[in-house]
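Exercise: predict the fold of this chain.
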Amino acid sequence: VQLVESGGGLVQPGGSLRLSCEASGFEFAKYDMNWVRQTPGKGPEWVSGIDRRAETYYSNSVKGRFTISRDNDQNTVYLQMDSLTPEDTGVYHCAGRRSIGTLVAATEQNLYHAWGQGTQVTVSS
């Protein structure tokens, strides 16, 4: 079971980034996929999720700015991040959980069946 994130980096406020997470070792199409971020000085924050039916969910802090999507043929989930602010700075982890019919918007790593190493996003001028 492996999740590998990419696409992080340094961006100015108002800019955009697109994160990718490639999965292997499990039946990706049967999993709900999420993004969880760890921001400096704060605990983990659930950011967004997409269930196996491709229904999407967002935290209030990113709704309207971030877009999650998935490609089951490529075993990949994406997070398009627009209108970034310094408060979006952090390590973004991709996390997968076998679908139970309702997406679980968890922050704890032990509630997921797959967890990536994370990619750093820094929003700064």
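Check your answer against the key: The two ends are 37 Å apart (CA to CA).
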